[in-house]
Amino acid sequence: MKKLLLLCCVFILNVSVAQPYLPILNEGQQWSLGSDTGWGFASTYYHVEGEEIINGTVYKFIIQTYSGTATSCRWREEDGVLIELDTNTNTEHVLLDFHLEIGDSFIFPEENESCFYAGSGGWYDRLVVDNITTEFIAGEDRKVMYMQGYDLQSFSGYEEQWIEGIGSTAGISPAGNYLDWIYRALVCFENDGETTFFNGYSQCIYDLGIEENLFPSIVISPNPVSDVSSINFPSEANIDRIQILDISGKILQECKVDSEYYFINALQFRSGLYFYRVYSENTMLKTDKFIIR
User: Where is the signal peptide (predicted)?
Assistant: First the structure.
């Protein structure tokens, strides 16, 4: 009887300490990717914005911006599995699966099935889990899966990591077939105003049709805010919308912008940490934090 009670206690303890997977598709999270095209370096920017219900299922919009042009995909996640909807065929396929074990294989979708990458048929057609660890990344203990790429014959020499709550080090989704011979890498991941760099980068890279040197000039001053502070926008950035969020990611204010500044009044908020996001033509250009005293 004592042994039975002990086993029950152990089972209950294991269930109680089990943690849900950290979500990838949180509003406000954004990714910057770099690609070596062979003719120069190109960058792509992704962020989560909005959702849509299709056949009773909720999908998040993942916005991809490249050379100033935005496209969107419809993704959802379910307990550590990232799933994409192919709107042409109304079918789903898996992009990431954090339930895979060491030795398991991930088979890429067929070529052109995925919204953001080429799929199989190139240098390799599958990833195999080589190792699984838990690492402290971007302020959280996260499951990290080390993946190796294989073609039909053998190991191709390619490696990437899948990081819980962030995605692949080759992007949100796996690199697929090197994007048809184009190598890409995750440059930075931003969440709640905090930035984490990957693949040896030390600065986020954006390619939105706007000069990068404009971003440092989009700042709130003074910060912390004790009375009234302003966020100044360079006219070349064409800022047309701003959001103010609390620390949980809840949008407190959303306003159209028709001038080169926006005022933050401390009397409108309780003391604490907040974030702002600025947009140009539905593309998030920058997110940063500020403090209300």
Answer: 1-18
Q: Which domains does the chain have, with CATH numbers?
A: 29-197 (no CATH), 219-292 (2.60.40.1930)
The rounded Cα 90 to chain-centroid distance in angstroms is 24
User: 171: phi > 0 → left, psi -120 to 50 → alpha, else beta; which?
Assistant: left
Q: What pLDDT, in 10s, does the model give residues 104-128? A: 999 877 655 556 654 444 556 788 9
Place of tokens 């599958």: 126
pTM metric for this prediction: 0.64
**SS3 per-residue string spanning the chain:** CHHHHHHHHHHHHHHHHCCCCCCCCCCCCEEEEEEECCCCEEEEEEEEEEEEEECCEEEEEEEEEECCEEEEEEEEECCCEEEEEECCCCEEEEEEECCCCCCCEEECCCCCCCCCCCCCCCCCCEEEEEEEEEEEECCEEEEEEEEEEECCCCEEEEEEEEECCCEECCECCCCCCHHHHCEEEEEEEEECCEEEECCCCCCCCCCCCCCHHHHHHCCEECCCECCEEEEECCHHHCCCEEEEEECCCCEEEEEECCCCEEEEEHHHCCCEEEEEEEEECCEEEEEEEEEEC
Residues of the chain with pLDDT under 50: 2, 4-17, 37-40, 118-121, 177-181, 207-213
Which residue in 282, 184, 194 sits closest to 241, CA to CA? 282
Of the chain, the end-to-end C-alpha distance in Å amounts to 59
State residue 38's pLDDT score. 45
